[in-house]
Design brief:
The protein is α/β, with parallel strands linked by helices. It is globular and about 75 Å long.
């Protein structure tokens, strides 16, 4: 096919769309089901309605081929586990008795059964449920969900393409099941899994699928020759099937590199590739392998992970080059639009100038459709749209909103002495122990306490003007008093004020820093029914006034025990925002770090002996390619140290990380130079304690002993067992006792019961160690 004929056949498509609905209807339906106020029939009806709405929105935007199977009640990787029948043994009875309740039990656990482990989806803030596999795993095809959702779309008249997690990525994301040797490699199950995928493909063909998309983002990471050979074998076998739809293998988030020639040679009908950010290298790599003659290329030229408008002229230039490299070129976002909010037009409070720079899922779908039209009909057909786009891009580049000379001068003046504590850790530790006087195995929490309906109502009342700032503060102070009194009674050693005034650990600070803006409706799924509203980092960052000091003073005035000052670290402030893309992330991180440094110093001046600066996003923001990691970790750890190095030796700096694979960043964790680090450890069975010991980590550690993302209450015996595992790796004088994460999403009854178990476990082990 010539480039001209390839352009004439171009269609617009996407890989996935936000699931929650405009007003988070899915969250409300699911949580209602968990509470028993919504029936299973009503939940499934609500979900079907949201799918119809999504497809309709895409069609209205000009998308000509919609995805199916991307919609999930909790997580698409968990959906894949169900589709291939890899149900953990402890959940099989529940799944057989009631598939819906069993599904949610795998995600959340029950009082009697632990859930699947949860971790980050590549370098995003989305969390997936980790498959558990072993030598005895038996796969079995369950095509019901995938086939039913395809039929729904076809009946409504949509050209539809089912989307599944590919077999290589599924196995590479999996972990050995409990009781299976830690060195077991799930990829060795490939030959057992491929017939199940063949069966799923056959069912989808029978249901009407012309194409099926198999997502293989794991192939953008550094892969071993054995893993690349496994990918070649998988797609040689699947491509060789006769009773199957056409196959589109998709990969995104970075360049495919050495995996590109493997997929280009595979007997599949198409590839979907990312051409944004670091993945722009796919363009030259694709040319180097001779393109995709006779195949379909779905070109991801619109950034699916950020909210800035596309440079349409630049994307059209990329697409024009790609027309000569494939038989057919279609246009798409770089990845699923799951990672962005639904509709920027709903943000009526945003400065109109800035609003011109924003594109959420609906706008990105329209950009994709416009680019596809430009390819089909020529740029003359979209002249007005291209001119408007150029004007909007120029407006952003020259706006005073994006540049503050004073901020830039301060950042440029930072020297090496600003990014290191004046004293080495051993001297600091001695000074901190003398000042704090804590017992062995000190207990604390991560920061937040339950965000009750009453707290959310008070925040809504303030926003709506039903109460004034004074009345709001009175309500928050009452909550702080209750939280402090509870912690004292429960026997916790280092307290927190509970953060009742904070809507979100990033948004709260973003609303008080220049350069940020908040959205009202910019909800994005983090995991399950947990949705967040990432703020938009649009310009240079500074701190006009203290953000947390008054709340700290109030809380510390209620108790003689130390209360932690609580802040969110610079990398997390970037990672959990929609960050500006017009300058290096390192420059933006330095600006945020300087603003936080001012806050840390002010907290110390107000009497804080402990300041916690959370960096849960440090691991998730790690580049997917090893070659890119040293540069990232250098500026990321420097930013943390810049934020925290302005304090005295006897002020203890804590940090916190959760729900990530920590092994790859052990050196960076050390480079943070925090005095204490708390880490998620419950679902991974205290794995991180051994990793820290093996790496020779010399500072204090709080590996979590309560999985706060599950409703189940751990017993004292469970906490003791986990702590004993921790003590086998970390000396008692350096071990803290804490939950995995903040308690914002938990209710008070389970919080009280779980913290009783946590404190009881610490006391029991102190007694044993004293004998």
């Amino acid at each position: 096919m010539t480039a001209q004929s390839a352009a004439a056949a171009t269609v617009a498509t996407v890989y996935g769309y936000p699931r929650q609905g405009r007003n988070r209807e899915l969250k409300k339906a699911i949580e209602g089901y968990w509470k028993g106020t919504v029936t299973s029939e009503a939940l499934l009806t609500a979900a079907a309605g949201l799918r119809r709405e999504n497809w309709a929105q895409l069609a209205e935007s000009g998308v000509q081929e919609v995805p199916t199977g991307d919609f999930s009640l909790y997580d698409h990787v968990l959906d894949t586990t169900v589709a291939v029948g890899a149900i953990p043994a402890r959940h099989r009875e529940a799944v057989e008795a009631d598939p819906l309740d069993g599904y949610f039990a795998m995600a959340r656990g029950t009082q009697d059964v632990a859930p699947l482990e949860m971790t980050k989806w590549f370098d995003t803030n989305y969390h997936y449920l980790v498959p558990e596999l072993g030598p005895d795993t038996v796969f079995a095809a369950n095509p019901a969900k995938a086939a039913a959702e395809l039929r729904e779309a076809l009946v409504l008249g949509h050209a539809a393409r089912p989307v599944l997690v590919g077999p290589i990525t599924y196995l590479l994301l999996a972990k050995p099941a409990p009781g299976v040797a830690a060195d077991f490699q799930p990829i060795t199950l490939l030959d057992r899994l491929l017939p199940v995928y063949a069966e799923l493909l056959a069912h989808l063909r029978a249901a009407g699928a012309a194409w099926v998309q198999l997502d293989e983002p794991a192939l953008v990471q550094d892969r071993t020759p054995a893993e690349l050979n496994a990918a070649a074998r998988a797609y040689r076998e699947l491509g060789g099937l006769t009773a199957r739809p056409k196959l589109l293998v998709a990969s995104y988030f970075d360049r495919l590199g050495e995996a590109l020639p493997v997929l280009a040679k595979a007997p599949v009908e198409g590839l979907a590739l990312d051409f944004t950010g670091p993945a722009a290298a796919n363009l030259d790599d694709l040319a180097a392998v001779g393109g995709l003659p006779g195949k379909r290329l779905v070109a991801g030229v619109v950034d699916g992970r950020n909210i800035w408008i596309n440079d349409l002229g630049k994307s059209l230039a990329t697409l024009a080059t790609l027309l000569g490299l494939a038989d057919r070129v279609d246009v798409a976002p770089s990845c699923s639009l799951l990672h962005v909010p639904i509709d920027a037009a709903a943000e009526r409070d945003v400065d109109p100038q800035i609003a011109r720079w924003l594109a959420f899922a609906k706008q990105k779908a329209a950009e994709v459709a416009l680019l596809a039209r430009g390819l089909r009909e020529g740029t003359g057909a979209i002249t007005a749209e291209l001119a408007a786009n150029r004007a909007d891009l120029a407006s952003r580049a020259t706006s005073p909103i994006t540049r503050d000379p004073a901020v830039r001068a301060r950042a440029a003046a930072v020297g090496a002495d600003d990014t290191r504590r004046a004293q080495a850790y051993p001297q600091r530790a001695e000074a901190q122990r003398a000042r704090l006087g804590l017992p062995l195995l000190p207990t604390t929490t991560i920061g937040s306490f339950p965000q009750t309906a009453e707290l959310r109502l008070a925040r809504a009342d303030l926003t709506a003007g039903r109460i004034d700032a004074g009345a709001y503060r009175e309500r928050m102070e009452a909550e702080v008093r209750e939280v402090i009194a509870y912690q004292e009674k429960a026997g916790l050693d280092v307290l927190v004020h509970g953060e009742p005034e904070r809507n979100d650990m990033v948004q709260y600070f973003a609303e008080q820093l220049t350069g940020y803006l908040a959205t009202r409706h910019g909800w994005v799924q983090s995991y399950g029914t947990r949705y967040v509203r990432p703020p938009v980092l649009a310009g240079d960052i500074s701190r006009p006034h203290p953000m947390t000091v008054d709340w700290f003073r109030y809380a510390q005035g209620l108790t003689d025990r130390p209360v932690k000052g609580m802040l969110t670290g610079p990398v997390t402030m970037l990672a959990w925002s929609f960050v500006r893309d017009d300058q290096p992330f390192a420059d933006t991180a330095r600006q945020v770090a300087l603003a936080l440094r001012d806050e840390v110093v002010d907290l110390e001046s107000a009497g804080a002996a402990v300041v916690q600066v959370d960096e849960p996003a440090l691991r998730e923001t790690l580049p997917l390619r090893a070659a890119d990691r040293p540069a990232y970790l250098a500026w990321a750890t420097e930013a943390f140290r810049l934020a925290t190095s302005g304090v005295r030796a006897d002020t203890q700096i804590h940090t916190h990380m959760c729900y990530a694979e920590f092994g790859a960043i052990m050196t960076a964790i050390d480079d943070l130079d925090a005095d204490v680090i708390s880490l998620e450890a419950t679902r991974s069975h205290m794995e991180v304690a051994g990793e820290l010991a093996e790496a020779g980590y010399p500072r204090e550690v709080g590996p979590g002993v309560w999985d706060i993302h599950s409703p189940r209450v751990p017993s004292t015996e469970e906490a003791v067992s986990l702590l004993r595992t921790g003590l086998a790796a970390i000396p008692a004088e350096r071990l803290w006792v804490n939950p995995d994460c903040g308690l914002k999403t938990r209710g008070w009854p389970e919080t009280r019961a779980s913290l009783d178990s946590l404190v009881g476990a610490a006391r029991r082990l102190r007694e044993e160690l004293a004998d």
